[in-house]
């Protein structure tokens, strides 16, 4: 797996934002739509800040951009403080000129019986735009990408999943206690992620060093879903020095 190590997450995030902006502008020049796969969490925040800056100061337009987010808690209301709809609005969408009709995030308000159909439609919608041009990923300490927790199959699609206990513990401060963290989520699958033409996994901070080592150098196994990325020709790990310290 190609790994690019930066001194700081800020420098790395500027580069990732530049790559995304280049794709958007290329598509614009061709009169086409750019399809972005987006992640929430701490890891992409500085990328989104730079995209906002590029919009405000360098007139980067998102009018031709369609987005698909990786995941959403289930159940959750879009207006609740921890929802990924709220996160994406606050961190990105409210500050750029994207048409909100072009924004797609798994729906945390569905009735359970309607989830399977929703997930199939999500996959079809991605395909209808010709697939994802660039997919951003973070990595959880369980090795999850999206919310594909240990045990996820390499060909999995968008679906309802159960969150790992460690993932819920890591989210507990956002929810004011682990007991308030939803036990489930709707996530794109490993197979969905693999169809993206470019995949960028970002990890910052020494807290991610051991899982980065496993993801990059470990045996490919459902026990650490991020190891599946070793089988992709389109992935790059973009990490900071601190997250790289365990790599050999
Ligand atoms: C978020 C997502 C998760 C996070 C991962 C890392 O949409 O899919 O896989 O990317 O849990 O989270 P942070 O970046 O907060 O460390």
From TrEMBL:
**Per the database record, which ranges form the Glucosamine/galactosamine-6-phosphate isomerase domain?**
9-232
Q: Which domain of life is it from?
A: Bacteria
**Would you tell me the protein name for this molecule?**
Glucosamine-6-phosphate deaminase
Source organism of this protein record: Mucilaginibacter rigui
Q: Which residues of the full protein are shown?
A: 14 to 261 of 639
């Amino acid at each position: 797996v190609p790994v690019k190590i930066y001194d700081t997450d800020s420098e790395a995030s500027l580069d990732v934002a530049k790559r995304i902006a280049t794709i958007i502008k290329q598509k614009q020049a061709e009169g086409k739509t750019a399809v972005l796969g987006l992640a929430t969490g701490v890891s992409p925040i500085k990328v989104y800040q730079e995209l906002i800056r590029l919009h405000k100061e360098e007139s980067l337009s998102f009018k031709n951009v369609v987005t698909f987010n990786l995941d959403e808690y289930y159940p959750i209301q879009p207006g609740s403080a921890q929802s990924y709809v709220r996160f994406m609005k606050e961190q990105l969408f409210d500050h750029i000129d994207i048409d909100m009709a072009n924004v797609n995030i798994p729906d945390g308000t569905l009735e359970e019986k309607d989830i399977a159909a929703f997930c199939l439609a999500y996959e079809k919608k991605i395909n209808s735009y010709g697939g994802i041009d660039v997919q951003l990923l973070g990595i959880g300490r369980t090795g999850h990408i999206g919310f594909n927790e240990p045990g996820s199959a390499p060909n999995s699609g968008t679906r309802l999943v159960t969150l790992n206990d460690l993932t819920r513990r890591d989210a507990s401060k956002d929810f004011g206690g682990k007991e308030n963290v939803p036990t489930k989520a709707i996530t794109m699958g490993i197979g969905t992620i693999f169809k993206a033409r470019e995949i960028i996994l970002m990890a910052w901070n020494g807290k991610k060093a051991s899982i980065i080592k496993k993801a990059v150098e470990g045996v490919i196994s459902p026990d650490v879903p991020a190891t599946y990325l070793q089988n992709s020709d389109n992935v790059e790990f973009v990490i900071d020095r601190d997250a790289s310290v365990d790599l050999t």
